[in-house]
Amino acid sequence: MRCRMNRSTGVDYLEPFEPGELVDGLEGIGVVEMASPACNFEVGDLVTSVGRLWPWSRLFVADHSDLVKVNLPRGYSPSIILSCVGISGMTALLGIRKKAAIDPTKPQTIVVSGAAGSCGSLAGQIARLDGCTRVVGICGAPEKCEVLMNELGFDGAINYKAESVPDRLRTLAPDGVDIYFDNVGGFVSDAVIAQMNQGGRVVLCGQIAVYNTNLPYPPPIPEKTAEIIAERGIRRYSAW
């Protein structure tokens, strides 16, 4: 969403917001209020979108072919469709399963920046389930660090606003970093990449540190970081 506030979004599947237009997003969930006889929905059905932008409004008219009914298990909030089962969950799952190349037969360390966000928090948990033996998260508040370690199963967390990322990383990842799930970019990513092992993998999910700058997306890599990537054979992939 943030990239759509720029003149260029940096991607070919999203257009920037225009002044005066209704704001929309990549996903949504709602309840059918009225339904034509020709569609397969009934009033009261819980639905979500398939391949369409979802307007930020209380009511809107949609073509039934753009919607799919949601059969929510008892006890689950509809918001799960926008998180674990939504774009955040799919991005984390695809990034880890398809790009991180975790080898469950070997000890491996993953570092996740933006780790307390909707995507990063899931990426760390999926990496643990897929075999990473050490999961370290980077975020920006002590409360977030507590959640990562006490509720989400991370082995360690770094508050980049109050701690030295390089120093803490040497403590929490003494054997180096094998996989980096990058939501942030900027100095945090430079610090992590500097401690990555030979043949490491970077999964590029976001670059929130530079969204308010005039840099293109993805932003250029500092010369020193580029040298490390080349020397150590580190591979960088888009999460999608």
Which helices and strands, and how do they pair?
Layout: E1 24-25, E2 29-31, E3 46-49, E4 54-55, E5 67-69, H1 87-99, E6 109-113, H2 118-129, E7 134-139, H3 142-150, E8 156-159, H4 165-172, E9 177-182, H5 186-193, E10 196-204, H6 223-231, E11 235-238
Parallel strand pairs: 6-7, 6-9, 7-8, 9-10, 10-11
Antiparallel strand pairs: 1-4, 2-3, 3-5
List descriptors.
alpha/beta; Rossmann fold; 2 domains; 240 residues; six-stranded parallel sheet; single chain; Quinone Oxidoreductase, Chain A, domain 1
Can you put this structure into words, describing what you see?
By secondary structure, the chain is α/β, with parallel strands linked by helices. The chain folds into two domains: 2-81, Quinone Oxidoreductase, Chain A, domain 1, CATH 3.90.180; 87-238, Rossmann fold (3-Layer(aba) Sandwich), CATH 3.40.50. The protein has six helices and eleven strands. β10 (196-204), α6 and β11 form a beta-alpha-beta unit. It is globular and about 65 Å long.
CATH homologous superfamily grouping of the largest domain: NAD(P)-binding Rossmann-like Domain
The number of distinct helices, counting runs of at least 4 residues, comes to: 6
**Overall SS class:** alpha/beta
CATH class of the largest domain, anyone?
Answer: Alpha Beta
Distance between the termini: 16 Å
Low-confidence blocks of residues: none
Shape: globular
Q: Total strand count, please? A: 11
- One letter per element, helices H and strands E, the order comes to EEEEEHEHEHEHEHEHE
CATH topology of the largest domain: Rossmann fold
Radius of gyration: 20 Å
CATH architecture of the largest domain: 3-Layer(aba) Sandwich
In which range does the helix fraction lie? 10-25%
Order of strands side by side in the largest beta sheet?
8-7-6-9-10-11
Mean pLDDT: 91
Q: In percent, how much strand structure appears in the residues?
A: 15-25%
Number of domains: 2
Major sheet description: 6 strands, parallel
